[in-house]
Specification:
Elements (H helix, E strand, L loop, with lengths): L6 E3 L12 E3 L3 E4 L6 E4 L2 H8 L4 H11 L3 E4 L4 E5 L4 H15 L10 E6 L4 E6 L5 E3 L6 H7 L30 E3 L27 H9 L3 H5 L2 H5 L3 H14 L8 H10 L6 H9 L4 H7 L1 H8 L3 H17 L1 H4 L3 H10 L5 H8 L4 H4 L1 H35 L4 H8 L16 H14 L1
Antiparallel strand pairs: 1-2, 3-4, 4-6, 5-6, 5-10, 7-8, 8-9
Helix pairs in contact: 2-3, 8-10, 10-13, 11-15, 15-18, 16-18
Length: 440
Amino acid sequence: MANNVGYVNVNRGLNDQFYRYKMPRLIAKVEGKGNGIKTVIVNMSDIAKALCRPPTYPTKYFGCELGSQTQFDPKKDRYIVNGQHDGNKLQDILDGFIRKYVLCPSCDNPETVLGVLPKRQLITTKCKACGHSGTLDTNHKLNTFILKNPPEGAKNKDAKTPKKGKDKKKDGDSPNNSGEENELGGDNNNQTPQAGDEDDDDWGEDTSAEAARQRLAALSMGAKGLMMDGDLERAEKERVNIFYEFVKERMPITSAVYKEILAESERVEVQDKAVLVLAELLLDGNAAVTIKQHRALFRLFTDDNTKAQKYLMKGVELAIKDHQEALLKKTATILSALFDSDIVDEAVFFDWSKRASSKTVGKELAQQIHDKAHVFIKWLHEAEEEESSEEEGADLEIEYNDRHTTEGLVEVKEPPKPVSNGTKSKNNANEEDDLDIDAI
């Protein structure tokens, strides 16, 4: 449902329409009557994903600000604030959550990562954009909830090296992320800092300009996902260029980033033409081997997608143009690799072979490519005809009864003629040879 609404700037204090960090506008739905009335945040999961925070955090923040109880059931994607609340008002309250728990206090970018130090009762924040690191500068009631329910994957260095002989069991080690929360504040855990807490000081990062530049160049997928709305407003050619740069940054490609590449093509909505980029970046003078090596990557885009397969054929033509001396003579081998790897279907090959188009690489080179491909296309036709013939033969056999079918399968040989001079027949001699071999 969130996809049907507009997007707003994560930092709504900025009116820049080209601001790249976006989130869905909050949708609130009031349910129930009387004392049972409640407000459901319909798209809380989508909002939380854009903010890179668990959806329970902003939901609990609403409860703290409004003095209302909250309920959440992640399995059913239900996030509720008791009482009747207007969507615009909740959007304004969400701005406060973003300022306190999302935006970097140094650069104002929403690329911060939260961590917890439960023994010190501190929430840490690190910015992937500028490198700023520190502790959360707020005493909001939500802090208690975050300390009890740290972000997934957050490092807890307090529990890194427990002292021998000390009781390692701590209150609040098993967070409860579902059901109704009634306690919004107050002292919790009753923990006393112990010796050895100094180890927590090493969580900071290098904040030099060079380190910040490197971190900015390696933005996380989650942070880049915040740019979605702005990128989709661009022309298709620009979106293809965005995808090109994304893939180029990950060269040389390994299977570990296949799904990332597919996800990025879907994000900028260039799934069909993505294979043109892959062909340009991957297919070099050893194209046939590369195709087989990255078979799984190409199939992510071409399986059950005739349009993408046709674009890939154009990409192959362009690769042959770029590496003409090495690849033109290997055209049939390249097409065979595409076929053997189940990347391109027969029907697409046949359709492509009907005419040499001048649009991609020019009429002359296109014709040369088709001439070199002729041996493969001919083989493909013959294989199809042979397969069709076998299928027709199989259909004919069905019309015979079992006896006829069996006779058709058994090779019938004439009995050997008697040898007048008493010598053995050739067949009998062979049989004896076989027996001798078996005996050995």
